[in-house]
Design goal:
Radius of gyration: 16 Å
Structural class: alpha+beta
Strand content: 15-25%
Order of helices and strands: HEEHEHEEHH
Strand order of the largest sheet: 2-1-3-4-5
Shape: globular
Oligomer: single chain
Helix content: 25-40%
Largest sheet: 5 strands, mixed
Distance between the termini: 32 Å
Number of helices: 5
Number of strands: 5
Length: 154
């Protein structure tokens, strides 16, 4: 469960991360703030490339930073996006690829906070945004790396 002060801090971080966005092609700046189970926040922004394929969404930037720093348990993410240089006008939802990355590391109750401002936001769970997901959490015959390692230790 994310408390109100954490939500505020996450949204503030996501809004600030929008300023670091590199979006010369879409002109759509996205910032994120990923909260780990131990309370750390990892910010991210979208980074575009002229070839498009090498571009990276803000959500994945946050996840990859946290994972490369040794974190694999997450509570929620705040997302703020809109035209570069302007305040967000609508709620920014994660794309399908980002939802799939979230499903790899998070359970259905993972909170996704979509914010315009620190007082105008809505919260959905990963299960609401990606129902019946393909993930290592509940797929028949699929085991996460941790589950495989636990079985080897037995």
């Amino acid at each position: 469960m994310i408390d109100d002060s954490q939500i505020y801090q996450m949204i503030q971080t996501a809004l600030k991360m929008r300023e670091r966005s590199y979006c010369p092609y879409s002109h759509y700046a996205v910032g994120t703030a990923l909260l780990t189970k131990d309370g750390q926040i990892f910010g991210g922004c979208n980074i575009e490339n002229i070839a498009f394929g090498p571009s990276n969404c803000a959500e994945r930037t946050s996840f990859f930073k946290a994972i490369s720093d040794g974190h694999k348990e997450f509570v929620g993410i705040a997302i703020a996006g809109g035209p570069a240089g302007k305040e967000p006008l609508e709620y920014c939802t994660p794309c399908g690829v980002c939802r799939q990355v979230m499903a790899e590391f998070c359970h259905e109750d993972f909170s996704i906070i979509m914010a315009k401002t620190d007082s105008d936001y809505k919260i959905k769970t990963l299960g609401e945004l990606l129902p019946d997901s393909f993930s290592p959490h509940g797929q028949v015959g699929v085991q996460s790396q941790e589950e495989s390692e636990e079985k080897e230790e037995e």
